[in-house]
Each structure stands twice: as structure tokens, then as C-alpha cells.
């Protein structure tokens, strides 16, 4: 596109002349009627994210660290609301909120993975009632 700055979203929308502060992996908020960007969140430590692929799919947490590996996959370390830390590839991370305030409604479990014992206890408690 002959030097026109543009960005492409995860759902293949193309927006021309975006805010120059928006970089790769940032999250933007779009007004669906006009197609204009209303707000954006930087991909940065301390922001809330959701994992969209890999073994930790569906988990939600705060970005604590980003390991850069030139020529390979960057690794992002995330800490969930229960204090459990996990790591995943940068390509599996989607920023969903500033600080720990989400822009979207979260699923029932709030994106927290329970241990097998905790899941069993929850199932048995539900069966009892």
C-alpha cells in the first residue's frame, strides 16, 4: 500500500492511518459503527491478558515478564489471580485489559485453572447440593 501506515487486527480488519503509538501485539478498541479506533492498550508488563493457544488455553492473568529470543519464539510469563505463574509463547497472548481491569466479560471461572483435586472437590460439592 504505497507507504500508507495501516494495521491489521486479529480478525483481518485493516485500519489505515492508526495512532503512531500503536505497536505490534497492542490491543485496540474499535467503534464498530464507524470503524475508528477509540482506545488501545500497550503490550506491557502489568496488563491483564488471556492465553489464546497452547497448553494454557483460556487462562487469564497479569503479564509479569517477557523474554526476548531473537530468531526464536519470545516467551511471556504470566501470573493468574491465584498467584500461579506460567509461561507461554508471545503468539498465544492477547492483552484484554489495563492493569487488572478487563475490557471484556470473563467466563465463569474467571480464567483460573484449578488443580485436579480442586476440580474434584468442586464437582462433589455440586453433586451434594
UniProtKB/TrEMBL annotation:
GO terms for biological process: translation. The keyword Cell membrane does not apply. InterPro entries: KOW, Rib_uL2_dom2, Ribosomal_eS4, Ribosomal_eS4_C, Ribosomal_eS4_central_region, Ribosomal_eS4_central_sf, Ribosomal_eS4_KOW. Residues 80-127 form the Small ribosomal subunit protein eS4 C-terminal domain. Transmembrane segments: none annotated. Residues 1-37 form the Small ribosomal subunit protein eS4 central region domain. Residues 46-79 form the KOW domain. The keyword Ribonucleoprotein applies. GO terms for molecular function: rRNA binding; structural constituent of ribosome. It comes from the Eukaryota. Keywords: Ribonucleoprotein, Ribosomal protein, RNA-binding, rRNA-binding. One of its GO terms (cellular component) is cytosolic small ribosomal subunit. Component of the small ribosomal subunit. Component of the small ribosomal subunit. The ribosome is a large ribonucleoprotein complex responsible for the synthesis of proteins in the cell. Belongs to the eukaryotic ribosomal protein eS4 family. This is Ribosomal protein S4, X-linked.
Amino acid at each position: 500500500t504505497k507507504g500508507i501506515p495501516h494495521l491489521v487486527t486479529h480478525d483481518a480488519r485493516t485500519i489505515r492511518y492508526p495512532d503512531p503509538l500503536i505497536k505490534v501485539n497492542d490491543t485496540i478498541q474499535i467503534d464498530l459503527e464507524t470503524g475508528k479506533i477509540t482506545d488501545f492498550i500497550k503490550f506491557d508488563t502489568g496488563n491483564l491478558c488471556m492465553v489464546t493457544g497452547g497448553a494454557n488455553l483460556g487462562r487469564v492473568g497479569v503479564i509479569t515478564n517477557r523474554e526476548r529470543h531473537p530468531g526464536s519464539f519470545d516467551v511471556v510469563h504470566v501470573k493468574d489471580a491465584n498467584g500461579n505463574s506460567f509461561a507461554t509463547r508471545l503468539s498465544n497472548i492477547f492483552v484484554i485489559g489495563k492493569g487488572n481491569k478487563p475490557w471484556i466479560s470473563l467466563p465463569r471461572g474467571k480464567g483460573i485453572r484449578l488443580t485436579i483435586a480442586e476440580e474434584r472437590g468442586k464437582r462433589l460439592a455440586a453433586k451434594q447440593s
